[in-house]
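Reminder: ligand-aware prediction takes two inputs, not one.
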Amino acid sequence: MSKSILREIGKRIYGEASSKIIKSMDVIGDIAIIKLPHELLDERRFIFGREVLKELKYINVVLRQRTPVEGLLRIRRFEHIAGENRTETIYKEYGAIFRVDVERVYFSPRLSNERLRISRLVSDGETVVNMFAGVGPYSILIARKVDNAVIHSIDINPVAIEYHLANNILNKVTDKIITYRGDAKEIIIKYLSSTADRVLMPLPEYALQYLEYALHALKNKGYMHVYLHVKYEENREEALTRSREIILRELGERGYRVVEIDSHPVREVATRLLQVCVDAYIRKI
Ligand SMILES: C[S@@+](CC[C@H](N)C(=O)[O-])C[C@H]1O[C@@H](n2cnc3c(N)ncnc32)[C@H](O)[C@@H]1O
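Here is what comes back for the chain with S-adenosylmethionine:
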């Protein structure tokens, strides 16, 4: 995305206030998503949308985000402000391709580096359980990269699972991914006890509540990647340290030995609130 062009359009239409808008603009495939503060919610948004379409030839739809990402399904609502009136698009990431409806499923391009990082940690032949898979970006990146991997990919949103299945086909990974629609805890108890070498938990809001099901899915030893939102006062190190302490405590209480633990900053989700991924290699005592 050409940030300088966007900044230019923003300045022309909104003057100095434009810097806020540009910072929070997402591009998913050919859809541009903007957020506008209340005071800028006037007719100018349609002009802004049309200018974006005119200047950025790869954008065909401009949407304004109306609600934050919310609820169990982590979805957000939009207002259409320019271009074709649709919310479905095709998004590409590190050689993989995803069909996604940005209003009916969770999807964020801001996690692409994190997904790549995780996919690089997986070794040949591993069995992975992805408890909160969405349309499949983590699972599909892993399947494309890793020989003989088996990935059990779960999501509770039926629409996300429909897209996940379509994306498995698009990326030619149907032989490596088993896709489940339902609550991760029920699917794990029913089908996936002690199967996984690695468990992914990319849902910070529920990670701790679901930790015992992640442990249920793991073999006697294995890796887990737990995403958390952690506050800090002065610097991000505090959040990184606290996140490790939380996971060490939770695992200790449940009778696990933590052989290795590390924490990585993923992104700032609000002021002084960091999304962190805790990577742990653990053994049952
Ligand atoms: C933050 S999104 C992450 C999606 C995906 N991993 C990604 O990076 O795009 C979390 C996902 O968890 C799903 N979800 C919420 N509660 C769930 C549950 N109890 N069991 C399975 N999936 C759940 C939501 O539908 C949503 O797709």
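Residues 107-284 form a domain with the Rossmann fold fold (CATH 3.40.50.150). The chain has two domains: 3-86, 107-284. We will return to this case in the review session.
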